[in-house]
Amino acid sequence: MNTDNAKRSALTIDGRTLSYVDFGGPGRPLLALHGHMSEGMSYADLAARLAPDWRVIAPDQRGHGDSDRAADYSREGYLADLEALMDHLGLDRAALLGHSLGAINAYQFAARHPERVTALVNGEGCTELGLDGSNPLAFVLNLPGGTCPSREAFVAQLGPFAPFLESAVRKQPDGTWGLHFHPKDIYESENQVHGRSLGRLDRLRLPGAADTRRQRRCAVGRAGSTDGRSAARHPSRRTGDGPLLVRQRPGRLRGRGPGLPCLGIAMAAAFPAPRRWITMRPS
Hints:
Helix content: 10-25%
Radius of gyration: 18 Å
Number of domains: 1
Oligomer: single chain
Number of helices: 7
CATH superfamily: Alpha/Beta hydrolase fold, catalytic domain
Strand content: 15-25%
Strand order of the largest sheet: 1-2-4-3-5-6
Distance between the termini: 10 Å
């Protein structure tokens, strides 16, 4: 993973630090939002593949990575952070890409502020999860919430979660080692944002975005499609010279942070150019 051009910066929102990674370049801005337990640097490989056409900017969403913890993990709080980041960067409009939590935040922001979004890529950001009201991330409460004197000692405490969360272990300011997120924060965040997330999505009318009346389960793309044929059958997702399509080989795509699970879909968005496939291969 080449991060030579990545620049770590931050802004302050109500006394709280929001950190972000700007992968730079002359291309059009693309804001990339990670999911729970991940971070902005998880998009380093994608940023390299999209350069120089796209300038990827990826925040550590509140409570993740180098960003401060927050008292509020509501959807409105996440969206306020994104709006503040765009204002800080001087971006009137940008394309949005998100995975899981980040995908839902992306399409909810687009529904509220369509004038600020040029295109949308949704990776596993379903609008209806079929949940019974229980928190699907309750297992994180079993993760160690403290720190250890060494990285090895903390990874050992992760037990069966180590293969998935080892890359989320960081050196803390006091020299000890722990996760870059707090398990209780993840649980509280999921409590506040999970469930039926359609909300204002029915109002979303971006050029080339999937018809949400026909795609109520996922805002863009169709679950189970890995070859792009499903996306190709929907010309409404194309504008200009055609969309950018992102697909992933079976397996897990890893970065700094938990591996992104195999998307299982071809993420199609209304990018006017370039028309090409970018295949994400698991490490």
